[in-house]
Amino acid sequence: MFLVTILGSSAAMPTPTRNQTSQIITIENTRFLVDCGDGTFVQILRNGVSTKNLKYIFISHLHTDHFTGLMAFLVCLGMQSRHSPLYIYAPADLEQYINLHLKISQTTLDYEIIFQALPEGKSEVFLETAHFSVQNLPLEHRIKPCNGFLFTKKNPKRTILAEKLPKNLLPKYYIDLQAGIDVKNENDEILFSVEDYTILLPECKYAYCSDTKYNTELLPLIQNVDVLYHEATFLHKDAQKANNTYHSTALEAAQMAQQANAKQLLLGHFSIRYHDSKPFLEEAKSIFPNTYLAEDGVSFEIQLGEREKE
Amino acid sequence: MFLVTILGSSAAMPTPTRNQTSQIITIENTRFLVDCGDGTFVQILRNGVSTKNLKYIFISHLHTDHFTGLMAFLVCLGMQSRHSPLYIYAPADLEQYINLHLKISQTTLDYEIIFQALPEGKSEVFLETAHFSVQNLPLEHRIKPCNGFLFTKKNPKRTILAEKLPKNLLPKYYIDLQAGIDVKNENDEILFSVEDYTILLPECKYAYCSDTKYNTELLPLIQNVDVLYHEATFLHKDAQKANNTYHSTALEAAQMAQQANAKQLLLGHFSIRYHDSKPFLEEAKSIFPNTYLAEDGVSFEIQLGEREKE
After folding, report:
1. What global pTM score does this model have?
2. A250 touching B, CB under 8 A?
3. What pairing do the DSSP bridges indicate for beta strands B159-160 and B198-199?
4. Can A65 be counted among the known catalytic residues?
5. Of A64, A205, A210, A72, nearest in space to A141 by CA
6. B174 and B167 in contact (C-beta within 8 Å)?
7. Chain A 12-31, CB below 8 Å of chain B: which residues?
8. Candidate from B13, B72, B105 with C-beta closest to A76
9. Which of A41, A92, A259, B16 has a 20 to 30 A CA-CA distance from B293?
10. Domain residue limits, chain B
11. What is the ipTM of this complex?
12. Are A38 and A63 in contact (CB under 8 A)?
């Protein structure tokens, strides 16, 4: 399973139906919260999202609309009887803010917060397990640092082409083949090779890019992603405003998707100056047809793009 | 006009239909925000509350659920093109938190914030105009200071008993009588006295008491209020838990209303441990029939209690 659940899709000013930015990413049994605008915990409750497997919180940057719901979130997690540690990856300045909040509110959490400052000025895989990796993506925004995140769901086990193998093969050989070990006889001759009897499904990738101006330097880092979430604060008729405020237009987001050879584009972070979100979709689709709009409460499955599947 | 609009009525843990504590008080053309839980600004938008005349924010205490929506609120006000100053009355520790948030988020607001620490350990009228006054009410909660607020809507003008006066009386004499000045002839003899030709409607009072344990020391300060908002985190079967956590039960809130000779009781701050809010109403009504439950998005008019009207 590889899911993104939208908890908030507005730009800095929310609306009655769009909260400030927040997403839950689910990779198998692990959940990540990405950004945490005002009222994010209520969105968790409204959309029936379990926080049981939530292990990581990533904060892209310290503009108010991307982190202001964090303290309510942390305290409410505590009230849900959480005891397992929570890892927060964020700009370094956030740590003192968390500590000051806990101090003045005289709050002691029953779980440990492990705060990690995100890498600055460079992109690196800052979190990796056998099942996934996460790499920060330096974005071009008014405030520094500002990071996007590239989530990679790995396929730690090879897929066995069972129909090619004899039915009575010992289970241990299946396990070896899944793990990439050839099955050999006692003379060390290969009976069933990993190459012939298994395939490795490609990794599946989701890139979160918000907030950022149109920035082609990002392209090598997000090349061939299966789904690109890209902010689209403005329509292209307001490209100058987008540029001045270090935001993007829907068309620019689509250009990024196109140039990155992304398989799907998900737009979000819509400004309230436009009363309708359809024009964002139309504008992006004009050059990148496989585009969708983020809507609060909606989950999107991150699947391998068509080209890889074939 | 004297209105209380409920933006949040849950205890610390919100629900899909109850946000953390927040209320808007409207006295004629002036609005006050009282407490500001997570997602309060979205509640403002959802309920179509104008922030145009919002001049004051009061924070009762620094438990997370009573102030964590404040920074999003302040920043969103700025995005609504606010330029008039905003007065924040709160525990002193909040000021450094506001300043740290503005610093790390690199936010400059286009309006001035005038921060005032609330009186500590005593009750006094800390804000007064010709139209209203606000007095802090020291509450008994785990964190100190914790203040409730007594709002008094004054009647600065006397009401003229027009039917008793001659129809051709000069307008200036009406204005004098409204202002409490007798109408005299040139020999300084009273023609129409303030006492005989006007009445002064009584002041109208709303007391906000959250969070607090049952505390009869509060009674002299809230005597004869027209509406008492009192927290009712627990039902009385859990009175021991209420006492241990410095909260109240619905029955205790009703006892306070009864002993304060309040005309109406409004209950809020309900714990999620009870899945239904009706028992709170039933419990309080068993001894104080004129009780209502706070519900998010609902406005209650603060009117003179029946006894005063008669």
Report:
1. 0.93
2. no
3. antiparallel
4. yes
5. A210
6. no
7. 12-16, 19-20
8. B13
9. A41
10. 2-155+201-309, 159-197
11. 0.92
12. no
Question: Dihedral, CA atoms, A285, A288, A290, A291, nearest 10 degrees?
Answer: -50
Topology of domain A2-155+201-301+303-307, per CATH? Metallo-beta-lactamase; Chain A (3.60.15)
The verdict on B149 touching A (C-beta cutoff 8 Å) is no
Nearest CA to CA, how far is A82 from chain B (Å)? 14
Nearest CA in chain A to B13: A76
Name the active-site residue from A65, A182, A226, A296.
Answer: A65
Judged by CB atoms closer than 8 Å, whether chains meet at A37 and B72 is answered as yes
B125 Cα to chain A: minimum distance (Å): 25
CA closest to B76 among chain A residues: A13
CATH number assigned to the domain with residue range B2-155+201-309, chosen from the 4 options 3.40.605.10, 3.40.50.970, 3.60.15.10, 3.30.43.20 = 3.60.15.10
The tokens describing A13, both together, are 């000013």
Over residues B144-187, the pLDDT tens digits come to: 999 999 999 998 788 899 899 988 888 899 999 999 999 999 99
The per-residue pLDDT string of chain A (310 residues; one tens digit each, 9 = 90 and over) reads 999 999 999 999 999 999 999 999 999 999 999 999 999 999 999 999 999 999 999 999 999 999 999 999 999 999 999 999 999 999 999 999 999 999 999 999 999 999 999 999 899 999 999 999 999 999 999 999 999 999 999 987 888 998 999 888 888 999 999 999 999 999 999 999 999 999 988 899 999 999 999 999 999 999 999 999 999 999 999 999 999 999 999 999 999 999 999 999 999 999 999 989 999 999 999 999 999 999 999 999 998 876 444 3
Of A238, A284, A236, A239, nearest to A262 by C-alpha is A284
- Contacts of residue B68 in chain A, CB cutoff 8 Å? 69, 71-72, 75, 101
